[in-house]
Amino acid sequence: MAKPVALQLYSVRDYCKDDFCGTLKKVAEIGYKGVEFAGLYGHSAEEVAGWVKDLGLEVASSHVAFPTKENVNQLVDELKTLGSKYLITGFGPDDFKTVDQCKRVAERFEEAAALLKGTGITLGAHNHWWEFLPVDGQIPHDILMEGAPSIVAELDVYWTAYAKADPAKVVAAKKSRIPLLHIKDGTLEEGKPHTAVGAGVLDMPAIIGAADPNVLEWLIVELDSCETDMMEAVEQSYRYLTSSGLGFGNK
Fold it and tell me: Is 120 left (phi over 0), alpha (psi -120 to 50) or beta?
């Protein structure tokens, strides 16, 4: 079952810095169904929400700061204004060096999820490769998901594979808690930039096919860097996902 395709706007951050509204317009013109925010580039949530609505886009989620007692009200207000029901965040590699550290991260996620209870906003964890590097024979991502039962996973399929885990198997194992997939592609070679989705080595049909169609809500394209023009790669990624029947957009 094809899923709607969104773009993590971090991919086009250089364009957003120069012309945020114009960049959103270009993303909509390509055909993307939605966007995932990673900053508002100095604009108010109200202003950005207006652009999104006018362009016929939806908000898949927002990648923001980790929720605390001090910032949670501001985060919730911003996400509600934007129409984002998922708050996505994460931790750096130094927080997953030991099993105890991994457990503490899980505790912090669970505490943050409690702060969001009743708001209609769900907390999700985005991974890089370090969450899948074994620590004392255990996988940090497993410790996190087990220790924070109130959160969901926004699984980044490329970084999962980069850590030499099998993303299709990870998706299958955690499919009841994966409403969002970060779809990125590349060579899996260290230091090499990403490619347009479909131009790399990841088996996207197998990975996406391993998800629970009743749980998975969005395919979110994200390219951290690219050898080719980023906007062209973003467009090529959209074409691949829609033409292969894995995803759909507004065009």
Answer: left
What confidence tens digit (pLDDT) does each residue in 182-221 have? Answer: 999 999 999 999 999 999 999 999 999 999 999 999 999 9
Can you list the positions of beta strands (E) in 11-85? 34-37, 58-63
Whether 30 contacts 83, CB under 8 Å: no
Residue 202 domain boundaries = 3-248
212 in Cβ contact with 176 (< 8 Å): yes
Q: Is 23 helix (H, G, I), strand (E, B) or coil?
A: helix
> Structure tokens of 186?
């590349």
Confirm if 222 and 196 have CB atoms less than 8 A apart: no
pLDDT in tens, 96-150: 999 999 999 999 999 999 999 999 999 999 999 999 999 999 999 999 999 999 9
One DSSP character per residue, 194-223 reads BB-TTSSS--HHHHHHTS-TTT--EEEE--
Q: Which residues of 30-49 are buried (b: 16+ CB within 10 A; e: fewer)?
A: bebbbbbbbebbeeebeebb
**Amino acid of residue 101:** Q
DSSP 51-74: HHHHTT-EEEEEE-PPP-TTTHHH
CA angle 18, 90, 139 (to 5 degrees): 140
Number of structural domains found in the chain:
1
The CATH number assigned to the domain holding 104 equals 3.20.20.150
> What's the pTM?
0.98
